[in-house]
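hey
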């Protein structure tokens, strides 16, 4: 069995990276594949008896089979919903690229059939004063899944993100159009949605993994109904067997 691993990034914050990642993991589980997921940096968390917990990281952990300890899924958790490097500074924590990469290497060493590492915000969110999450994807040598938040400005953000990923020497394995703005499906925007999606397909030369509408109940199963895993599973793994 091949071991497929990808880095999930988005065109901005709040574009549905976790929602899409959970749905892809759900699809992998439905195929009988083992799954693993990591969110190395998470800002915006509640304190429980076990410690700080981030909702996105909990959602990813719920789609891991076999299950993984929370600390492996999300080794760096911060309470305020702000940029991780600023949250770390306020918490007196020292973030560095090696410190963030090490637990993700450990997670990938579990050799699940299908693994996802989810970034925070967009492609160049800082880890420290010298490195960004793009450097983490480079260090882990992972192909990238780009989640495009379909709203005003999506074409520009998508092209810039795609070009930055390629400029950093990594390959976009696939992209997802996620309709985060419900108004895009309403008149008069609805008549232009197909044109916007066609423009994305023209400018993003990678497989489209799906177009996800705005859903009232975006469970992993509901989102997964609009996605395909095939281009990812049939791709030759970059990571050594």
């Amino acid at each position: 069995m091949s071991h497929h691993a990808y880095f999930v990034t988005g065109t901005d914050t709040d574009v549905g990276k976790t929602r899409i990642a959970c749905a892809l993991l759900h699809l992998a589980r439905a195929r009988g594949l083992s799954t693993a997921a990591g969110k190395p940096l998470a800002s915006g968390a509640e304190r429980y008896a076990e410690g700080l917990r981030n909702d996105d990281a909990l959602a990813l952990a719920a789609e891991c089979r076999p299950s993984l300890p929370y600390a492996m899924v999300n080794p760096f958790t911060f309470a305020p919903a702000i940029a991780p490097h600023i949250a770390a500074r306020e918490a007196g924590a020292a973030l560095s690229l090696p410190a963030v990469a090490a637990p993700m290497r450990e997670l990938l060493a579990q050799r699940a059939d299908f693994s996802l590492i989810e970034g925070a915000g967009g492609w160049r969110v800082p880890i420290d004063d010298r490195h960004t999450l793009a450097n983490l994807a480079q260090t882990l040598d992972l192909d990238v899944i780009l989640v495009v938040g379909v709203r005003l400005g999506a074409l520009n953000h998508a092209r810039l993100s795609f070009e930055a990923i390629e400029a950093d020497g990594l390959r976009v394995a696939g992209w997802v159009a996620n309709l985060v703005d419900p108004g895009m499906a309403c008149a008069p925007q609805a008549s232009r949605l197909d044109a916007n999606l066609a423009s994305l397909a023209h400018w993003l030369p990678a497989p489209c993994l799906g177009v996800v509408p705005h859903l009232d109940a975006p469970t992993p199963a509901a989102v997964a109904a609009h996605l395909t895993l095939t281009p990812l599973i049939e791709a030759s793994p970059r990571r050594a067997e």
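The radius of gyration is 17 Å. The longest helix spans residues 17-30.
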